[in-house]
Each structure stands twice: as C-alpha cells, then as structure tokens.
TrEMBL record:
GO terms for biological process: putrescine biosynthetic process. InterPro entries: Peptidyl-Arg-deiminase_porph (IPR007466). This is Agmatine deiminase family protein. Gene3D superfamilies: L-arginine/glycine Amidinotransferase, Chain A. It holds the Pfam family PAD_porph. The keyword Ribonucleoprotein does not apply. Keywords: Hydrolase. GO terms for molecular function: agmatine deiminase activity; protein-arginine deiminase activity. The keyword Hydrolase applies.
C-alpha cells in the first residue's frame, strides 16, 4: 500500500457516486459489438438493468443507429419499462463498456467539466477508435448542460479510479503502471490529483481477478462507501487461486487511513464459487456494483453468495434499496454491472 498526498485549491470537485444523479449512461449491445455470439443473453441483462435504473432515475441509452434504437425501444417497452425515463442517443461505439469510454464528470462552480481521457482499449488489447470519440460525440449531440469538455491526452479508464467525493482517490498500481510504464508513482499521483482535483491518491499494490482484462481496475476490487467506509471483494477459500492476493489486498485496505488518520470502516464482500466458460475462469466480482439515487444495483451471479453480498451492501449503504441485477452474461466478456454504466451527476443532463 502506498498513500500520497497533494494539496489542491480549486472550485472543481469530483463527486462521489452516491451523490445525486441526473441519469445513468449505457450503450445498447448489438450484433456489431463483441456481444454478437450471445446477444440474446446479454440483452436480457440490459433490459433488467434499464428497468432497475428507471425505478429511480433516467437512463440515457446510446444506440448505433435507428434500427438498434427501434429494436431496443421495442424490447424495453415489452418489458414494461417506464419509457418516459429512457432517452436514446445515436452515436457510434465499438463496444458497451461506458465506464471506461464515457465522461468523468467534475462539478465546476455552477457548471460541469467533462474529462475526456484517451481510451485505448485497455492498453491496446481491443480496437477503440469509435469509443475514444464517444464523449466528444455526446457533447456535440447536446445531451449535457452547463458543461465544457476537457480533452486530456492521457490513457485513463473510469473503472480504474474511485473517489469518496471529499478529495481522496483510490486506484491500483498495476493498471496505471501498465498504461504508463515510464511514469513513476509520484508522477502519476501528481497528474491524477491535478486532473481529478484530489487531495490524496491511495494506491493498492495487490488484488486481481482471473478473467479480468483491465489490468486490475479498482471497481472490480474495492470501492468507497459513505462515512469513511470501503467495500471490497474478499476471498475466504484458501484453496482458491485468488486467496493470497485478495488477502494481501484486504490487509492493505485495513492499513489505509482517512484524512483524519483513522482506519476506514471495512465491508468485505463474499466470494462466489468459480464460474467457468469452456474452462476459462470468469471474473465474478460483487464490488462491481452501481450506485443510483436511493439504491445500489448489485451484480448477481446465481450463486449462494448473492444473498450474502446483498446483506453486506445493505449494511454499507444504509437507507438504500439493494437491487440485484443478473450479470452472469456480462462476465463472459470480462466485466460486470459497473463496467457497462456511467453515472451523470445531477444537473449535467440537458432537458
């Protein structure tokens, strides 16, 4: 574990995910994305996701063209989703992982700053030429209010960072070092603190999931919760290949301190039994939850641990409804619920 501090003095602020939101941004899967081979399965997850989001707030759904919009609209309407809370935006995309290609939004005085980092397909693993233009295209489509897009020539995915909304950022060294191998930890700390308006950057040196191709995004491993709390993926099975690394990560998290030099309140999440696809281990993380207004949407995998994870999240987020969303289909493509979504803070969406 490494903790770095850098003083900030600015009116801009990176809000926590549990602060009020206008909408959640997603992109509808289609036959031109990597979901093509199992499109029917993943569409059911997207329908369940939009149904859950629209119970609490609006959903903005990116679609590749008019045909995809018509199809998505019909599927959602048939599922009795509240279509008054669904807005479609036509914009090209390579795939649907909007946590990593969507805007990272800062509150900036009375308006907003949309940080548009480079998206490189997780270090060049996949083509991302359309995804890298998504924030610019959404801005041009006029969906944002009182906002300015800031293009930043630096590879950073939204799933690689998490903030408590009070100036502390949590990230992993493995991911940022993989993207920027020539940069020192202090250099990366300085850049992240400057761009994201953070006082502190907390680095985790341990933690990984088999089946994860993001180089250890923090949103699959550990997340802030209100009241100086951290929710993290634990593993209690000593025979599992993840046990030693996740135990080391848990020890790192336990050693972290708040701005007031107090330990964080810790909420370890249960461990699902291995889920395999043709012998390939899939990354079934309960830490990949999505916070919306009044609720936490939880990835569910059809495992006995689902109910235990729901109980842990209910304790970490008191007063919020915990809504399971079936996500077994998502982990086939190495991500889960948080990975396919991007929350938009209250006020940033244009009427």
């Amino acid at each position: 574990m490494n903790q770095n501090t850098r003083a900030q003095s600015t009116h801009a602020r990176f809000p926590a995910e549990w602060e009020p939101q206008s909408a959640v941004l997603i992109a509808w899967p289609n036959a031109d994305t990597d979901w093509a081979d199992r499109l029917g399965e993943v569409e059911e997850t997207y329908i369940a996701l939009v149904a859950a989001i629209t119970r609490f707030q609006d959903a903005i759904v990116c679609v590749a063209d008019e045909d995809v919009e018509a199809y998505a609209r019909a599927r959602l309407s048939s599922a009795r989703v509240d279509m008054a809370k669904v807005r479609f935006i036509e914009a090209p995309y390579d795939d649907t992982w909007l946590r990593d290609s969507g805007p990272i939004t800062l509150r900036d005085g009375d308006g907003f700053r949309l940080l548009d980092f480079r998206f490189t397909g997780w270090g060049g693993k996949f083509d991302a030429s359309q995804d890298d233009l998504l924030v610019e295209r959404l801005t041009e489509a006029g969906i944002f209010s009182k906002s300015a897009r800031q293009s930043i020539d630096f590879a950073l995915e939204g799933g690689a960072i998490d903030t408590d909304g009070d100036g502390t950022l949590l990230t992993t060294w493995q991911c940022l070092h993989e993207r920027h191998p020539d940069a020192s930890r202090q250099e990366l700390t300085t850049r992240l603190a400057d761009w994201l308006k953070q006082d502190r950057v907390l680095w985790l040196d341990h933690g990984y999931l088999e089946g994860d191709d993001t180089d250890a995004h923090v949103d699959t491993l550990a997340r802030f919760a209100p009241g100086d709390a951290i929710v993290f993926q634990a593993c209690d099975d000593e025979s599992d290949s993840h046990y030693a690394e996740l135990k080391a990560m848990g020890d790192e998290i336990a050693a972290l301190r708040t701005k007031d030099d107090k330990p964080y309140r810790l909420f370890p999440l249960p461990w699902a039994q291995p889920i395999l696809d043709d012998g390939r281990r899939l990354a079934a993380s309960y830490a990949n939850f999505l916070i919306v207004n009044g609720a936490v949407l939880m990835p569910a995998y059809g495992d006995d641990a689902d109910a235990k994870a729901q109980a842990v999240l209910a304790e970490a987020f008191p007063g919020r409804e915990i809504v399971p969303v079936p996500c077994r289909s998502l982990i086939w493509q190495n991500g889960s619920l948080h990975c396919i979504t991007m929350q938009l803070p209250q006020g940033v969406v244009a009427d």
